[in-house]
Specification:
Blueprint lengths: L14 H15 L13 E7 L3 E2 L13 E3 L2 E9 L3 E9 L7 E3 L1 E9 L2 E2 L5 E2 L8 E3 L4 E3 L3 E5 L3 E9 L3 E3 L1 E3 L7 E4 L20 E2 L1 E8 L4 E7 L1 H4 L11 H11 L5 E7 L14 H10 L4 E7 L2 H5 L13 H17 L3 E5 L12 H15 L6 E3 L1 H5 E2 L2 E5 L13 H9 L8
Length: 425
């Protein structure tokens, strides 16, 4: 007999009441209910990215690169996770491959410097429950969740083993971070050797993102640009790129839930193939589709200007109108997805190898357009911050990495200091 109470005539919980309790317990155990009935959901956010290119292609006047071939070798990549969390995912790519490639084994661990890892943190990376992953040309894949407690600004090592000859053309070329390579499967080794020191091993092969899970509200800032965003001429292994230094500022200011990721490609241009796909063609993939993106900082255009005047390749010369249209299109696409957009003025470059007076006219015109744009959420005036007070067309000598185009570490620090952190909230 059931009199409507929670107990039956034998003093046991009724079937209906027991079912209700099980439902509540299950919901609470997997973290779906928060205080006050608010839903609390763990999400994955981009914590590190490397924008990809096809190393075997180049602009018409340049010599294409050669893809690395790995054979019974382990490659250990070191990177910095921007935000913290209790679970990570690793994203591998064969975006520009001409044939399928197989990653024979992947592991992730906390890095303790150079190629050395904290072996107690070492975890296998699985894809659909499997320890190997084969990607067809053009394919990318996120790993299964990996339980790993990560704090903000934690250095991670992602080690990849290639059992048989594997040609990897998909790469983030200017890593400004040494990779380490060793014969055999040494995925879990405490440290591994680096066979050469000629600068060719400062890249990320087939590795494009690390995502970190959290239930906390998180902002993701994607910095989009060329070699100045990529950190060319900054200290290798020093995390001195302006996005890294901006990240450090944010964490010091208490904004631990703001992630900063880098979508720079050295040599990149808006309209034409420079190094890597054009800015127009990659903006959606490298900014709009980044997990959790809420903000972007755009700094791109100096390579378009420098390679147009005097026209090194006449068919690839661009105009101010084409550059501002590219900017306007990117801004509109980001705003349509609810992404806040900051646009940076183009740095002074007088004295650089491709400087010209007519190119300077273009640079000034583009910067004027940026400063007067009403669509964007903020202007980052790198031009004024970085210019030489005695000659505004040239870079301040204190910030110049000696090629009159790229900043040194102090210059990148000045750039990071110029960004209004309140606009990234």
């Amino acid at each position: 007999m059931n009199d409507g109470s929670n107990f039956d005539r034998f003093g046991k919980l009724s079937r209906r009441s027991l079912y209700k309790l099980l439902v509540v317990a299950s919901a609470l155990s997997i973290g779906l209910w928060g205080c006050g009935g608010n839903t609390v959901e763990s999400k994955y956010y981009a914590s590190w990215t490397g924008a990809l290119l096809d190393v075997t292609t180049a602009r018409p006047s340049a010599v294409p690169g050669t893809a690395k071939i790995f054979d019974n070798q382990t490659v250990r990549h070191v990177l910095r996770s921007s935000i913290g969390g209790d679970s990570v995912k690793i994203k591998l790519s064969n975006l520009f491959g001409k044939s399928a490639i197989t990653f024979s084994g992947v592991r992730v661990a906390k890095s303790t410097g150079k190629s050395t890892i904290d072996v107690s943190s070492d975890k296998e990376v699985l894809f659909g429950g499997k320890g190997t992953l084969t990607l067809a040309p053009g394919q990318e894949m996120l790993s299964d969740p990996i339980t790993l407690q990560v704090s903000p600004l934690t250095d991670l090592a992602v080690s990849i083993y290639y059992a048989s000859p594997t040609t990897v053309a998909t790469v983030h070329a200017l890593g400004m971070q040494n990779a380490f390579v060793s014969a055999g499967n040494v995925l879990s080794a405490a440290s591994i050797a680096q066979p050469v020191a000629d600068g060719t091993w400062q890249s990320y092969w087939g590795l494009t993102a690390v995502e970190v899970a959290s239930t906390e509200k998180t902002n993701v800032v994607v910095t989009f640009g060329d070699s100045i965003t990529d950190g060319y001429r900054s200290t290798v292994d020093g995390y001195k790129r302006y996005p890294n230094l901006l990240d450090i500022r944010l964490k010091a200011a208490g904004q631990s839930r703001t992630s900063v990721v880098n979508a720079g490609i050295s040599g990149n241009r808006w309209l034409n193939l420079g190094t890597g796909p054009s800015g127009n063609s990659r903006f959606e993939r490298d900014v709009l589709n980044v997990s959790g993106v809420t903000h972007t900082i755009i700094l791109l255009g100096i390579n378009d200007i420098g390679n147009s005047i005097p026209a090194r390749e006449p068919a690839q010369a661009v105009t101010v109108e084409e550059l501002t249209f590219s900017l306007e299109t990117a801004i509109s696409k980001a705003k349509a997805k609810g992404i806040k957009v900051l646009v940076a003025t183009i740095l002074p470059y007088k004295g650089a190898a491709y400087y010209s007076d007519s190119g300077e006219v273009m640079r000034v015109a583009v910067n004027t357009w940026i400063r007067n744009n009403k669509l964007i959420d903020g202007v980052v005036d790198f031009d004024k911050i970085m210019q030489n007070p005695a000659d505004p067309a040239s870079m301040n000598p204190l910030y110049d990495a000696d090629d009159h185009l790229h900043p040194n570490d102090a210059g990148y620090a000045a750039m990071a200091a110029a960004i209004d952190l309140a606009k990234l909230q």
